[in-house]
Amino acid sequence: MLTFTLRRLLLAIPTLLFISLIIFLILDLAPSDPTASLPLTIPPEVRAEIRASLGLDEPMVVRFALWLQQFFINEPLNLLEQWTGLSFGDGDRTRVISWQTRSPVVDIIAQRMPQTLWVVGTSYVVGILIAVPIGVISAYRQYSWFDQIGTFVSMLGFSVPTFFTGVLFIVIFSVQLGWFPSVYDTTHVVTDWASFVVQLKQIIMPVMVLGLYNASQISRFMRASMLDNLNQDYVRTARAKGMTERVVVLIHVLRNSMIPVVTVIALGVPQVFGGAIITEQVFKVNGLGQLLIVAIQSGDIPTVQTLTFIFAVLIVLFNLIADVLYGVLDPRIRYD
Amino acid sequence: MFDASQQRKLVSVRGLKMYFPIYTGLLRRHTGDVKAVDGVSFDIYEGETLGLVGESGCGKSTCGRAVLRLYEPTEGSIIIDGKELAWDNIEARRISDQADRIGRWATWAAFLLGAALVIWLGATEMLTGAWPIVIAVLAVLVATYLVSRLSRSVIYRLRGASEGVSVDEFAPDDRALRRIRPTMQMVFQDPQASLNPRMTVADIIGEPLSEHSNKTGKERLNRIYELMDEVGLNRDFANRYPHEFSGGQRQRIGIARALALNPKFIVCDEPIAALDVSIQAQVVNLLEDLQTELGLTYLFISHDLSMVRHIADRVAVMYLGKIVELAPRDGLYEDPHHPYTKALLSAVPEPDPVSHDEANRVILQGDVPSPSNPPKGCNFCTRCPSVMDICHQIDPEFREVSAGRFVACHLFNDTQTAG
Q: Is B75 exposed, middle or buried (0-12, 13-18, 19+ CB in 10 A)?
C-alpha cells in the first residue's frame, strides 16, 4: 500500500506539471485583457505600458517558467519561513501577485478559504448525513412510498439548478417569511449563543441549497449500492445465521455498500474546496468560487492560474485517496 | 439398514406452498403467482439424509429455503424438532395477517396522536422550556415503540381466544424465529457469494456464536478453532478473508459456519454444484463424516443423481413445484415408479462406453411448462410418455403405493384399484 501510494505520488508530479501547462496555454489563448476594464480615455500606448509592467510583453515560455518558479519554489519557501521562523536565502523572492489587488494570490486564497470550507463543507457533510439514511431506507423498502418520494425528491434536487433553488429559497424564506437573511455575512464572528444563532440563520439557506444537491446525488449512489448488496447470497447467509434485521442491514449490507459510496464521497471533496461558484454568488459568500469568477471577469491571469491549478492538485490527490480508501475498505483489493 | 418406522420425525412438512406474486400493468395489480413450490409434503427422520432432486427451476432450492423459513411460505405446515414454523391452522394465519395490519395502523395512530398532542400542548403554551419538550417527544417515541412491539401479541391473545386458536398455533415472529435458527442451518450453493467478503473466517464462523450464545471471547475463539479442525481447515487461516481460499475451502467455511450452533437439521442447497469434481467427493465425504459424528439430519438438494445415490437414505423427486415420487434410495434407483423419475434416471451418464451406447434412454419432448401457468391436471401431463386422458383432467394424489414409497401418478392409482 505504501509503495503504491508513493508510486502514485511520483506519477502525479509529471501529470500536474502537464496540467499546469495546459491551464497556462488555455489562459494565454483566451482573448482576455487585464486592461479591458480600465477607462476608455487611457491612450493605447499607456495601456501597452501597463501590460508591459504586468510582464505581458515577455514571451509565453518565460512567463510560464516565471510562474513555475514563483509557485513551486518561492511560495513554498515563504510558507516554510512563516511556519518555522527560519530564513532561506535573502528573502527577496517575487510571489504570484494578483493583477487586481496587487497582493499575493496565496494570501488571498488563505483569506477566502475559511468561508468556502464552512459553507460548502457543512453542506457536503449535511448532504452525506441526509443521503446515507435515505439511501439505506429507500433500498431496503424498494418501491415503497418512502422510496418513491425519495426518488422524486432526489430527481428534483438533481435536475433543478442551484441558482433556481437558491433564489427560490431567498424568495420564500427571506422575502416572504423573513426567517433568514438572504446575504451571508462573512465578517460575522461567533462569540456567544446569540451570535451563534445568527450564524446558524445565515448559513442555513446556502447549506440547504447545496446539501439538497449533494444529498440527491449521494443518496442515489447509496440506494443503488445497497440494492446490489441486498440481493447477495451472503445476506441470506446472515439471515440464516439468525442475525437481527438491524445487524443484517447495518453490519453486513451497509458496510459492503459503503465501499463504492465512500470513494464517490472522497472524489467529491475537491468540489468543496472549489466552492460552489453559483451558490456563493447567489448568497454573496465571498469564498473561493466567488474569487475565481471575479478573477476571470477582470482577466486576472495569475489568480485564475493559481486557483485552477490548486483545484487540479486536489482532484489528483483525492483520486489517490479514493483509490487508497478502496484498498483499505475492501479486503479483496490489494495494491502490492 | 435404515428403518423409518423406528425413527423420530425431525422435520415434517405438509402441503407447503411458496408462491411469488406477479404484479403487472399500470397499477401493478396482482395478476398471478409463480408457483415455485406447490403443495409439497414430506418427513425427514432424525439422522437420515433426504435427497431432493429435480431439474433446474423445479423449485428444489425454494423448497429448501422455505422449509428453513428464509421465505415466508404462502401456505402449509412446517414442523422442525416439534416446533411449528409456518401455518398449520388457516384461521391462525388469517388472524396473524389481521394483527399485522392492525398493529401497523395502531403504531401510526400512536405516533400521530402523540405528535399532535405534543404540538397542541406546545402551541397552547402548556408545555414550555427545553426539557419538558424533549421528555414529551421521547415519551411519544417510547409509546410508539411499545405499541408496535406489543400490539401483535395482544391481538393474538384476544382474537385467538375468541376464535379458539391457541397462541402456540401462530407461526413464530421474527424474534422467535431467530431463537429457533440454531437448530436449523443451511449450507449454500455458491461458496463465494454466500460469505461476506469483508469478514474474516473467524468473524463468519463466530458471528452466530456471539448472537446466540454468551460465550466469552476466549471460549468463542476455542469453538471457532474446534469447528475449523472439524471441517479440516488450518487454524492459521482464521484471520483470512473468503476470497483468499479455494472453492472447496470456502465450502468448508460455509459448513463450519452452519455447524457453529450445533444444529440438528441442515439443508444442503446444492453444496457441491459450484465445486470441481475432484473437490466434490471431499466435501460430500466431509458431510457424511459430520453426520455420523454429530448425528445430523440433512435435506440434500442436488441435481447430481449419482451423488444423491451416494449420500441419501431416501430420495424425493420434484417436478414443477411438486414432489412426484419419494422412496428409499435403493428402491427408487432400481425400480423407479413415476415416468418422470424413469426419464431422469435414464439421463444419468454411464461410464462404460458399451452400455452407454446401448442404454435405452427416455427422451422427454418439449419444455417444462411455466410455473406461473402450470397445466391442468397432472403437472407432467404435457411431456409424459405414458400420458392418459385422466392426466389432463385430475391432478394425481401423492399417495403411498407400497411401504415407504410415495408416488403422485394415475398409473399407480389404477394398479391399486385394480389389484
A: middle
Kindly state whether A178 is in contact with chain B, defined as any CB-CB distance less than 8 angstroms. no
Three-state secondary structure call for residue A230? helix
Q: Any idea what the Cα angle at residue B50 is, between residues B45 and B51, rounded to 5°?
A: 175
ipTM score over 0.90, yes or no: no
Q: Which residues on A lie below 8 Å from B196 (Cβ)?
A: 234, 237-238, 252, 256
**How many Cβ pairs within 8 Å bridge chains A and B?**
68
Distance CA A310, CA A304 (A): 10
Scanning A201-220 for CB atoms below 8 A from B yields none
Say if the Cβ atoms of A239 and B70 lie within 8 Å: yes
Distance CA B68, CA B318 (A): 18
The answer, yes or no, to whether residue A81 has pLDDT greater than 50, is yes
B241 contacts in chain A (CB < 8 Å): 331-332
Confidence check: pLDDT of B415 > 70: no
Test A241 with B193 for CB contact under 8 angstroms: no
- pTM, two decimals, is 0.81
* CA A209/CA A279 separation, integer angstroms: 8
Whether B197 sits inside 8 A of A243 (CB atoms) is no
CB–CB contact B197 A236 (8 Å): no
Asked if A144 is an interface residue toward chain B (Cβ–Cβ < 8 A), one would say no
All residues of chain A having their beta carbon less than 8 Å from the beta carbon of residue B68 are 240
Task: Supply the DSSP symbol for B129.
Answer: S
Angle of helix A193-230 versus helix A162-169 axis, rounded to 10 = 140
Using DSSP, state whether A330 is helix, strand or coil. Answer: coil
How are beta strands B49-53 and B75-80 bridged, if at all?
Answer: unpaired
Instruction: Indicate if the alpha-carbon torsion angle B369, B344, B359, B354 is positive or negative.
Output: positive
Query: Could you give the CA distance from residue B216 to residue B192 in angstroms, rounded to a whole number?
Result: 29
Give per-residue pLDDT as tens, A201-252. 889 999 999 999 899 999 999 999 999 999 889 999 999 988 888 999 998 9
| pLDDT higher than threshold 80 for residue B126 | no
Domain range summary for chain A, segments of one domain joined by +: 8-84, 112-297
CB contact under 8 A, B211 and A233: no
Q: Could you report how far apart the first and last alpha carbons of chain B are, in Å?
A: 30
Residue B355, pLDDT score: 75
Among A145, A228, A241, the strongest candidate for a mutation testing the B interface, having the largest count of B CBs within 10 A, is A241
Q: Give the other-Cβ count within 10 Å of A233's Cβ.
A: 16
Grid cell for residue A311? 483545484
Can you tell me the distance from the alpha carbon of B178 to that of B37, in angstroms, rounded to the nearest whole number? 24
Give A241→chain B minimum CA distance, Å: 6
- Residue B208 has its nearest CB partner, among A242, A252, A331, at A242
Which of A213-222, A323-332, B216-225 comes out lowest in average pLDDT? Answer: A323-332
| CA distance to B99, B173, B177, B189, B400, per residue, from B166 (Å) | 15, 15, 18, 38, 32
Pick the CATH number of A112-297 from 1.10.3720.10, 3.40.50.1100, 2.170.130.10, 1.20.1050.10: 1.10.3720.10
In B, minimum Cα distance to A242 occurs at B178
Tell me if B341 sits within 8 A of B53, measured CB to CB. no
Q: Are the C-beta atoms of B17 and B71 separated by less than 8 Å?
A: no
